[in-house]
Amino acid sequence: MYKVTQKLRPYQQRALKIALGNPGASLVLPTGTGKTLVGCAWACELLNLGETRRVLVLEPSRFLVEQVEQYYKSNTNIPVSKVYGVDSQGIRASKWNKEPLVVATPHVTIRDMHFLNFDAVIVDECHHTTGEYAYKKLLSAYPFRKRLGLSATISDKVLVSVEESVGPVHRWKWSDPEIEPYVPEWYGEVYDAELTEEETKLLATLENIRNELRYSPLAAMPSLALRMFTRDGAQALLETLAKPTTMSYTLRDTVVPLLSRCRSLHKLEPLKSALIEHDFDKAIVFVDRVCIANALAKEFPELNPVCLLGRLHGGSEAQKVALEKAGRKEVKLVISTSVGEEGIDLPVADLIISWSNTASPVRFIQRKGRGMRVSPADKDKTKVDIFIGTPDTPDYDSLYFGIAAACKAGVEILLAGEQKDLLKATTLGRIQDCLESRASDLAGLAEATVLPLDILKKHTSHLVGEGIAIYIYDFDVDEMLERQKKEVMRWIAEMFELPSVSTLDQWLDSPYRSKRLAALLNFHMQTSDRVYMNSNTVPSLAQTEYARLFNCRDDTAIEVKYGFDRKNKGQFSAFGNWYRLTERLQSVTEQRTTYLTFSHSGLASVTVSYHGEFSKESLPLIIKNACWVAERAEEAGQRLREEYM
After folding, report:
1. 209-244 pLDDT tens trace
2. Which residues pair with 25 in a beta bridge?
3. CB of 537 within 8 A of CB of 468?
4. Whole-prediction pTM value?
5. For residues 521 and 642, is the Cβ–Cβ distance under 8 A?
6. Edge to edge, what strands does the sheet with 572-576 contain?
7. How far apart, in Å, are the Cα atoms of 576 and each of 496, 564, 571, 585?
8. DSSP state, 7?
């Protein structure tokens, strides 16, 4: 017997009754009023009554696939699976028929239509059911017997199309006393800009070049091209490669022929959908490149577009004239480069669209602030902030980083749960998926994700900072000794320029032998010694395959210096064994981020650092791992003393 875990409000019960009483229905309930819960209840009722055997839930973006899959798991007892385009066809084939309810995007569903076996469909964000959009194609091609559409807004422009594909539209007024307390002033949406097969080939080519050049001074060039292509489009990258730059000399011959087979503006269709699917008085589209702004203006003449390009493109007077025109009522679309994010007073808009995603929290906040000011005329109107992202690329990463950083600064772009769902659709999500299945060092993650080490270091650091991942240290004593000897020999060569010294024995053979031996016995753990784990799996791994890394003696005492930001890492200190330190450091478990630096001096000296968000379960394990490192350093020190004393 399937059921929802929450009680439906009266208006939700009425909506459910309409949905169950018709073969097709489109329910328009404002954001925040619980329309997804109505979908949950509808699926439960159909499965319980035997009116359907399996239900497909369609979501327009991978971000929403993650979010809605988790919602169904949390609010119903229906077994749920999700299907992604990034999975191989073999994996997808098994997922399509695994559970009674599957959440997927329409893009992958169309590709895998021969695997489908569903009677009912929930079309979330059904205002996307227009034109050439994948929703429209799928609903025309597949014979679902029961259809339920859900949306916060269905404009008159798409009403007929939605009713033809899904079912009659039933609206609840935003001013309804039952609903009004739940309606926000504005909400955010993510639109996916899926790449074609040819564009995916270009992406793979740039990634291969990046890996080939990873040790070269030119390594940044393919990474920059990847970011530019996925953020702005082929037209922007072509313009850059036409100039006599280092990037052009490095990539032009290989990349330009591939770009000729790509769409110049791969985000154009999602932008068109966003403008068609929302009723608005004025929309502002933020782009990074002037060539993109001009190209978009030509695409929407019916909206009387105005481009704001800054003083460098036309001078101060031209900018003044453009700004005056942008404020006119007949101008429905304003296309702005970064000039619109600061310094000038943009007109108030009720639809903000980010074409070029940015990882900068300042730019995120400025974009939202420019258009989301409330005027007396529209104080009762909910506004929409839309982000167009290219999934599984650096563009989605920038979108996630920007939203996360803005929220840390106090500006909530998406809810905390929505941020985590967005994370799973990024490059970081690939790393997170790997860590959910097994612990790994950076070399193992590089092999599993096909990402270069510099990007892995940045992304794992972010996952650690967000409390999603945690790291400990693991190393072989013999390997550490060899590494230490090589580092000391390299240091000798650089500092003392003693070509006659070819062995450690020669260097140690001096009146300063004891001091020089101390330098050899001073160990520091490196990033390559880290093993990364999903934070939730650390306690179980500590009991099983990684138990040895937490197996320390009760009499091993170490010192710790700690703080709660980078500038004050050593603000506090404590000394003791693992049990005493666990008691002393309980305040750490209440902090968002903590920096811990452990040190130990005996037969050898060792320093080991950790940072991240530590729970009551993980903190004692981190301290035990630091004690284990100290004991291994003591073992290494004993060996070196026996060898050289």
Report:
1. 988 887 788 888 998 999 999 999 999 999 999 999
2. 148
3. no
4. 0.67
5. no
6. 522-524, 605-612, 594-601, 558-563, 572-576
7. 39, 21, 17, 11
8. P
